[in-house]
Amino acid sequence: MTDDKPRLAIAFVALRKITVPSTQEIEKALKSSFPEKTRIESIQIDGDKKDITFSVDGELCIIALMEFPISWGDLEGPCATSWLWKDATEQMKQQKAHLIVTFSGTKGTQIERCITLTKILSAATKAFDSVGIYWGPGSVVLSNELIQDQASSAAPDDPPLLAWVEFRVQHNEDKTVNILTTGLNYFGCMDIEVIRSQKTASEIMKMVMSVATMQLGGDVFKDGDTVGPDKETKIKTHHAKSFWDRPEKILKIDM
Q1: Which domain holds residue 78?
Q2: Fewer CB within 10 A of the end CB, N or C, for the chain?
Q3: Same domain, residue pair 130 and 187
Q4: What residues contact 180, with CB distance under 8 A and at least 6 apart?
Q5: Of 109, 101, 105, 163, whose CA–CA distance to 127 is shortest?
């Protein structure tokens, strides 16, 4: 079950240069990132060019310019383990400043609000001299191209999983594979772990992403429930202690 309480949605954009685009450039980037019917209004840049405010369908977004980089202590791990963005470490070390992007909408579900934030992030990477983005709850870093791709198709029934959730892939010495997620807990869902599986990483990833999508869609997995790609395949799931010793229980899939 997802958590639909209104909560501030927040993420970060790493910048190469401390520059602020014009309101026209910001508007153009926003309109290119949202469906045509979306109302983008009241774009304002404060006198110090430190805060940009605007509304998306009547709800407030604030982009705050920070004239210093995102802490490398936050980025080092996600950059080192990113399999989607191979040169994440090299690229993110180029940052000179960053944006804090917050969306304080209360309409719709938390999923829908985070989709709006994801599209705002995509727009920010087009308007600013951006290196990439950092989604804190999932410890995810993505290049400009990847966040724009994720945002372009994002919808409640097709959430941008790779923007919100880390899918950590670990290859063990005995040739088994672990895949563990981080970030589903932010949405009130259970993070997922597959440990020491003899299946291929792609097979496991397909299942884990499917179960993640189902949870974000509202499905609840009880301890002992089964899951599978067809009626004949029944893969057991468990509520278990995390392999990473996280405080909350996770959803372990026996693959």
Answers
A1: 9-163
A2: N
A3: no
A4: 167, 168, 170, 191, 192, 193, 194, 195, 242, 243, 244, 250
A5: 101
Is pLDDT of 1 > 70?
no
SS3 154: coil
Start-to-end CA span in the chain (Å) = 23
Residue 158 located in a structural domain: yes
Strands (E), the chain: 9-15, 40-45, 51-56, 59-66, 97-103, 130-135, 140-143, 166-171, 177-182, 192-197, 226-227, 235-240, 250-253
Counting the structural domains of the chain, the total is 2
pLDDT at 47: 81
Contacts of residue 18, defined as CB under 8 A and 6 or more positions apart, other chains included, come to: 65, 67, 96, 97
pLDDT tens digits for 199-214?
999 999 999 999 999 9
